Amino acid sequence: MKNLKLPITIDPYKSAQRRLECEGYFELSGMNRLLDACEACIEQVQVSVNFNVDELGLIVMSGKASALVTLICQRCNEPFEQELEASFTFSPVKNEEAAAELPSYYDAIDLDENGEVTLRELVEEELILEIPLIPRHELKDCQACADSVWGQLPEELEKPNPFDVLKQLK
Ligand SMILES: [Zn+2]
């Protein structure tokens, strides 16, 4: 099942009636926004997702996605590998009113004109959200820290002391 290529879109209602559980992958070639956001993606995106109907009768699709990517360390400018892992719980909605009534523990996901959800886009979006705002090596792996005499105190470097500015003014 792991090597199943997942459909780009899927009907959440039919899938939920069948209590569908699927595990598979997406090719990176269809994920341009994720590719743009990273230096490189190394493997296919692995996804597991299951469909269900909750006690309120709402359709729920929940799952996990992961991708191994290369990011550029903002401290030393060298590339490093990082596993992005996202988990999600969505409930498909037909319109904004339905979205507003959704319990807060679900994220609303829009249906396309065929009544399907774009699984690939959803997964891509979730993974992009997992990319750190300022990608950095672990301290022990970072060249900038190894080279710097301030290697012991990297936090000090990142947060300029506001009083330093005042000192310069004097
Ligand atoms: Zn680094």
Give the topology, please.
Elements: E1 4-5, E2 9-10, H1 12-17, E3 21-26, H2 32-37, E4 40-41, E5 45-53, E6 59-72, E7 79-93, H3 96-101, E8 107-110, E9 117-118, H4 119-129, H5 143-147, H6 154-158, H7 162-169
Parallel strand pairs: 1-3, 7-8
Antiparallel strand pairs: 2-9, 3-5, 4-6, 5-6, 6-7
Bound molecules: zinc ion.
Question: What would you say this structure looks like, in words?
Answer:
The chain is of the alpha+beta class and 170 residues long. It has one domain. It contains seven helices and nine strands. It has helices at residues 12-17, 32-37, 96-101, 119-129, 143-147, 154-158, 162-169, and strands at residues 4-5, 9-10, 21-26, 40-41, 45-53, 59-72, 79-93, 107-110, 117-118. Strands 1, 3, 4, 5, 6, 7 and 8 form a seven-stranded mixed β-sheet that branches. Helix 3 (96-101) links the parallel strand 7 (79-93) and strand 8 (107-110). The model has no long low-confidence stretch (mean pLDDT 88). The structure holds zinc ion.
